[in-house]
Design brief:
Oligomer: homodimer
Strand content of chain A: 25-35%
Strand order of the largest sheet of chain A: 1-8-9-10-12-4-5
Distance between the termini of chain A: 54 Å
Largest sheet of chain A: 7 strands, mixed
Number of strands of chain A: 17
Order of helices and strands of chain A: EEEEHEEHEHHEEEHEEHEHHHEEHEEH
Shape of chain A: globular
Number of helices of chain A: 11
């Protein structure tokens, strides 16, 4: 039916898409980018998923004028300053910057995305000067991916090529940032997806939402939800090709793999853990328990300590206000049964096996509540000294 | 009308109350207590508030047979083992231990409280042997207060003496433990209050609940809620004295001061911060925002870093699903205006003053949402390297 292949160079593979990143002086090191764009040279449709935070940052409030899906072909991104809690003045700064885009940017309904510290006005002049340093006909996905990072320790970039029966091809590619303040209902994360697939416009927003729900909305680094979270999908149809299942699968994989990269890069995190809750009374209850597991400080520190202390798993489920019963609960670490009503205390052999599982970079904690058919998986990471250090010293 | 005075020696001041603590071998160091009792030599009434965790530990399930308020005069407490997730066998262990209380304990409907690791059976024989090491006619509040501690770094003990007009006196005294896993809807905390006031039995449960709601249910160390949280109030009427307002005030102060001690002793914590939310659309919304502030990892690490990053305060409020507006929000640190629509960026002078406020052991962060009349105060602490260390290495 179709094959999906991973390609290097991220956004550069997508037909009609240009991108670049430069330093415009927001970061002190001139080698580190802080300003990027992604644009389509032909007309395109943008769909957005924005943060659920009530204090949406100025660039989101500006873009929301166009609705969630609109004709748009240019996204400008800056790091270091979130342009959040800056009021109407912050929105005017966005307007002023976007009205200064050079003609060669050919921008229609351009939008901004920002990430960084909250509460300070954008250095508008620096950014306007930076617009002329960007190469508006470059396909420099690497530079764009690096320029949007904040506390991230590695760039996040992906491209999938879909080949349909008959040889037609399209691409789904993206860059993303995000390392802390990551929580279901988005994260402090930005993700810019571009595709040359001929996505039917009426489907585009729903397809994006579904992909986001199964990826970025299932990861948690620290339970905090930022003012700036945004996922954009820019579709320009330049390939002329489309296949509903293939596109949904490729988009889903792009989002999921970037979400896992964000989690692996969770501030100070050493492990990624899938919290799989099954047998809940409902999917909602499963989601609540799984999300709480991924957010619990006691669970996260036990992961860091590689301590198979399943009592903290059980206590977190019990505190989640979900139907549960200690006689029916079953907990597995990967395929190791770690708790059921017949096996409560860890004997030395199972404890030794649990230690080995927990030493891995990633593993699975599965909890069957035995109450019904509800299920949900959330993804989290451990909490290390490094997290505290990064976040205690972030702004200073 | 009445005067309230603080006395030393905690529970020892309460007429008709005996208490003691010894080591029975649950802790390796024979100098450290791990078994305690509190009992009344005359008939008494016990009221309880238990954890909202669905996986209630065996001693709670045992005690719940008697209801939330019952005739009872003896509480036995052990540390190091929570007797949680131990099934029916755990309840039988409680029964076996309590049926071995010596005759001189004169116990009527005795109950147990346990704290420590989850998922292991109690060492019943050690505890039964320990029952004979306890001095059942001691008034050793210090030994009892020390024997119930786990990761606590100091004992928590208080006594208030109320003197009424005309010279009648009664006492409200308590011991408590709790350092981590502290969250609204209780905490991993145990608190045993005894009073010789002649509390009307029909009022006792409500008075206890109100005091708990304004104290233990407003503090958060790490957002986790344990399987064992319990507050008991034992009232024996031995003073013959009672005064409704005086008793409510003394009980409220006992609970609040112990809650603040627990927070000060938050695992690795260095500061206690009051998060006061006013002007919310409702008290419920105020409580949600205040509680989220006290639980936010980004807020807690900023407190540890003494970084006046009010953006994290604003972002947490915005993520709390409460009515808010960045033009109406006002944030104070103590009496320093740190954000309003006219003062968004911190100038150096205000930043310097904010640093000085944040260096204190305790201070207040007040957020007025400007949306209505709802208000709530929650109490939290910072998150330090030490928290991670304590909780990564707890069981091992």
């Amino acid at each position: 039916m179709f094959t999906i292949t991973s390609l290097k160079n991220g956004l550069a593979n997508v037909r009609g898409i240009y991108c670049d990143g430069v330093n415009c002086g927001l970061r002190p090191d001139p080698e580190q980018g802080d300003l990027a764009f992604i644009r389509s040279e032909i007309p395109a449709t943008l769909s957005a998923v924005y943060t659920s935070n009530r204090f949406r940052a100025a660039p989101l409030r500006h873009a929301l004028r166009y609705g969630q899906t609109f004709e748009g072909n240019c996204i400008l991104v800056n790091a270091k300053n979130a342009n959040a809690m800056t009021g109407e003045a912050g929105i005017r700064d966005v307007e002023e910057i976007l009205s200064s885009l050079p003609a060669k940017a050919q921008a229609l309904n351009p939008v901004m995305s920002s990430t960084g510290v909250i509460g300070y006005r954008l250095p508008v002049d620096k950014i306007k000067a930076g617009l002329h340093k960007l190469d508006w006909h470059a396909k420099n996905s690497d530079a764009a991916a690096r320029a949007i990072l904040t506390t991230d320790s590695f760039k996040k970039e992906i491209c999938l090529e879909v080949e349909l029966e008959g040889g037609q091809r399209f691409h789904v590619a993206a860059i993303a940032k995000g390392a802390g303040m990551i929580n279901p209902s988005m994260a402090t994360m930005l993700c810019f997806i571009a595709t040359d697939a001929a996505v039917p416009i009426p489907e585009q927003e729903r397809l994006l939402k579904e992909a986001v729900d199964r990826s970025f909305n299932r990861i948690s680094v620290d339970g905090d939800t930022s003012t700036n979270d945004t996922v954009y999908l820019m579709a320009n149809g330049a390939s002329g090709a489309y296949h509903p299942e293939a596109f949904a699968e490729a988009l889903g994989r792009v989002c999921f793999e970037l979400a896992m990269m964000i989690l692996k890069d969770g501030e100070g995190a050493n492990k990624v853990v899938a919290f799989e809750v099954t047998g809940a009374a409902s999917d909602e209850e499963a989601a609540r328990a799984a999300t709480n597991l991924s957010n619990s400080l006691l669970v996260k520190t036990a992961l860091f300590g590689e301590d198979p202390n399943w009592g903290r798993i059980a206590a977190t489920i019990g505190a989640s206000n979900v139907a549960c019963d200690e006689e029916k609960l079953v907990i597995y670490y990967d395929d190791l049964l770690i708790y059921d009503a017949e096996h409560r205390e860890l004997n030395p052999e199972r404890e030794e096996r649990a230690y080995r599982i927990m030493k891995q970079d990633s593993f699975r904690i599965r909890c069957d509540l035995g109450m019904g058919e509800g299920s949900h998986t959330a993804y989290g990471c451990d909490l290390s000294y490094e997290y505290v250090k990064i976040n205690a010293e972030y702004r200073t």
